[in-house]
Amino acid sequence: MAKIDADIGSFLWNIFPFAVGLSLIYVFRRNIHSSIKSRRSRLFAWILNRFTTKVNKILRKEKENAFRYLECHREKLGHSLFVLEIGAGPASNFDYYPRGTEIVCLDPNPYFESYVEQNAHKHENIRLSRVVQGFAEEMGDLEDSSFDAVVSTLVMCSVRDPRKALDEVKRVLKPGGIFIFVEHVAAREGSFVNKIQQMMNPVWKTLCDGCNLTRNTASYIKNTGFSDVDIVNFHLKWGFRFLTYFIRPSIYGCAVKGTST
């Protein structure tokens, strides 16, 4: 009996540190999860801020073409534009805006704000109005019909609900306002690339902060109820072609909110 008691005591003593550790994790699990999420968001902002120079080189022609819609809209209105950029990240698009543009930058990651402000100081062609922390699907703090244009570049692949995000885009646009976009999209259904995208998507979404390889963004835009939609298909020309083959299908274009909407 004494031996059994001793064995039980020894077992309890050995598992005591493990039990304490599990208890602490259980008690502080929310703080631990919050800390991990915060560090991940900070790291993602740091990486993306350094990667944007390369992205701009790769997409320069397509971004220039897309932002010409803004220049034409400015000429049509006869005044400087008030623009919302959703998923602005570190604000890598400031190079492309027409001179005098006033910009509100929206992004859910709070660690982009310092990068946005740094980049704004380098660009005399624009004026940064403010940085808003929030999701494209939930822009309730932004007033209806308040922006001349909304800009999205490589964002719609990552929003949680593209229908809701586009409805919000349309809501905050002034009648006659424009939504311009540059996005990578799902390849043609049934194609070899599309099959690769379907296979890679779960891993890709985990590694790339929710980026979705199989999203048919063009279809979502067309079905949002814009009065006019212009979409141009192209293929991204990344340096590492084998590694990025499945994200090459892309679009850019412009959608117009009707004046009677």
Automatic annotation (TrEMBL):
Highest taxon of the lineage: Eukaryota
Keyword Protein biosynthesis: no
Residue ranges constituting the Methyltransferase type domain according to the UniProt record: 84-181
Name of one Pfam family that matches: Methyltransf_11
Keyword tags: Membrane, Transmembrane, Transmembrane helix
Transmembrane segments: 12-32
InterPro entries reported in the protein's UniProt record: Methyltransf_11, SAM-dependent_MTases_sf, Thiol_S-MT
Protein name per the record: Methyltransferase type 11 domain-containing protein
